[in-house]
Amino acid sequence: PFQLVLAPLVGAIAAGNCIVVKPSELAKSSEAVIIKLIAKAFVPDFCQVQCGGPEIANQLTRMPFAHIFFTGSTKVGKIVMENAARNLVPLTLELGGKSPAIVDKNTNLSIAAKRIVHGKFFNAGQTCVAPDYVLVHESIHDAFLEELKKWMKIFFGDNPEKCENYGRIINEVHFERIVALISDGTVFSGGKYNKSSRYIAPTILKDVPLHSKLMTDEIFGPLLPMISYNTIDDLLKIIERNPHPLSCYMFSKDKAFYSQIIERLSFGGGCINSTLIHLVNSHLPFGGVGESGFGSYHGKRSLEIFSHEKSILKSYFSFDIALRYVPHGGTLKLIKLLFRL
Fold first, then answer.
1. CB 337 within 8 A of CB 42
2. Cα angle: 47, vertex 52, 56; to 5 degrees
3. 41 neighbors 9 (Cβ within 8 angstroms)
4. For position 330, what pLDDT does the model report?
């Protein structure tokens, strides 16, 4: 809730805009910091913060801004887009989706597991680019489960609830939503939770039905379903049961394997043999496709999306070609020749 406000704000400032910032009302502490920083750094006529719930967001997105940038769910993104259309306001939508992590049999199991555990359970799974589920080749399914379990213990200890590096769920509504998903699969590791502190343990689930909510809704929490596959065709069919993912993570030493996935699967962006880090590379435009959003930002692209390039051609009075003007007479052949040149 902090980084996803500040990153596009930098681009909007660099492009010379006046800006209204609407932080998430769910993250009150982040909202308080954003209010304090922006009030200290900018005069209100240049950059200001508007706080509130959906009613304020609805009012703001109905206003004739030059551009709207929105980060959030696909459901809310559709409302923002509908409001923006009333004034033909261009917008950038960074949404979410079910981002897969694909593990080939030809990979380094330990490092793949390490990086997936880090990517999934960072901020207790509450990031839009978290690996939503793992597709692992059936020949290494059980071995990979053990590697995931090993790294979870290394990162978070025997009792993650006492780990200072492990977060909590943002509110009770999302806590209840995530807890309800646990029963969609068999708990291999984790599964514990504490409502009073909104703690949900980092959890690996197996034997997950593809039609379950765990595999149709974006999890946005610390649950990691494991699904096995046999062929690339199998894994693509599983991924394509849902709309375009925001990210895709491929773990393989085989270039032909991940090249096929990149060519055949539509997704926003991703990594080969890692997770999350494409998000922090300022040289890589970041954004979604289809249901996961449209438009991209970061680095130079942030400057570009908040700018309008005016195309200007300057002519001179000293050179005036008669071919431009009527009557054209027999000049058609000459004009065609010029176009061919």
1. no
2. 80
3. no
4. 67
The DSSP result for 112-146, as a single string, is HHHHHHHHHHGGGG-STTS--EEEEEGGGHHHHHH
The counts of H helices and E strands in the chain are 11, 16
Token pair belonging to 263: 């060519």
Q: What is the pLDDT of residues 32-78, one digit of tens each?
A: 999 999 999 999 999 999 999 999 999 999 999 999 999 999 999 99
Q: What 3-state DSSP class applies to 20?
A: strand
Q: 199 forms bridges with which residues in the sheet?
A: 194
User: Dihedrals φ, ψ of 260, to 5°?
Assistant: -60, -45
Q: What angle do CA 276, 220, 195 make, to 5 degrees?
A: 130
Q: Which two tokens stand for residue 249?
A: 């993570």
Active-site positions read: 94, 128
* Residue 258 CA: distances (Å) to CA of 106, 135, 269: 11, 13, 13
Q: In degrees to the nearest 10, what's the CA dihedral of 109, 112, 113, 119?
A: 180
Q: What value does the mean pLDDT of the chain take?
A: 95
Picking from 173, 178, 168, the residue whose alpha carbon sits closest to that of residue 123 is 168
Whether pTM exceeds 0.90: yes
Question: Using CA atoms, how far apart are residues 230 and 216, in angstroms rounded to an integer?
Answer: 21
Q: Which residue has the tokens 């394997």?
A: 257
Cα–Cα separations (whole angstroms), residue 228 to 18, 207, 232, 292: 50, 9, 11, 24
Sign of the dihedral through C-alpha 81, 292, 22, 298: negative
Structure tokens given for 70 = 């929105």
pLDDT at res. 261: 97
Q: Count other C-beta atoms under 10 Å from residue 49's C-beta.
A: 19
Cα(301)–Cα(316) distance, integer angstroms: 34
Confidence of residue 305 (pLDDT cuts 50, 70, 90): very high
What mean pLDDT is predicted for residues 183-207? 97
Q: In b/e form, how buried is each residue of 227-257, taking b as 16+ CB within 10 angstroms?
A: bbbeebeebbebbeebebbbbbbbbbeeeeb
Tokens of 218: 């974006």
